[in-house]
Amino acid sequence: MNKENDQKMPLLHIYQQKLPHDEVVIVSNRTALLSLKKSIEKALEKGEGDCVVTSSDMETYEIKIILNDEDWQSDFWRRLQLPLFEVDESEEGQVLSVEDILGFDLKTSEDIRKARPIMEQYRQHSQQMTEKMKEIAKKKKQRDE
To answer: What is the rounded CA–CA span in Å between residue 47 and residue 67?
Structure first.
């Protein structure tokens, strides 16, 4: 392999916490770190940034950075899903998952307020579809027995 070309490929691995208070570890080459730095600077300037990097198995993935400078007690931060916990409800209401943030383009508490009706409609539809699928699976299981 050509070492010059290898250095240009943005190689970056992010290892999440396994338990609360564990470290998050980023292992990267200079190219990917510079790309990440540029994305962070863009997020600081424009509210969001992203970059595409590669893992050592040559799979590319996007890193999305969203700036939310609201107080830690804002609706956004209080409802945001914690990285190591998979809960659906909080004292503030429905927990915001990464999928919610990306799918509904949520960046602020105001975005949450505006999107709340469509989010609720989506969740109700999703719940209805889940129930229908469970009924179909149950009927199929009974038929197969």
So the answer is: 5
Report pLDDT digits (tens) over 57-116.
999 999 999 999 999 999 999 888 887 766 665 566 677 888 888 899 999 999 999 998
The residue extents of the domains of the chain are 1-67, 69-145
Amino acid letter, residue 126: S
> How far is the C-alpha of 38 from the C-alpha of 32, rounded, in Å?
10
* pTM of the entire predicted model: 0.69
At 25-43, the pLDDT tens digits run 999 999 999 999 999 999 9
Rounded Cα distance between 116 and 122, Å, is 10
Render the chain in DSSP notation, one character per residue.
Answer: --HHHHHHS-BEEEE--SSTTPPPEEEE-HHHHHHHHHHHHHHHHHSEEEEEEE-TTS-EEEEEEE---S-TTSHHHHHBPPTT---SEETTEEPBPHHHHHHTT--SHHHHHHHHHHHHHHHHHHHHHHHHHHHHHHHHHHHH-
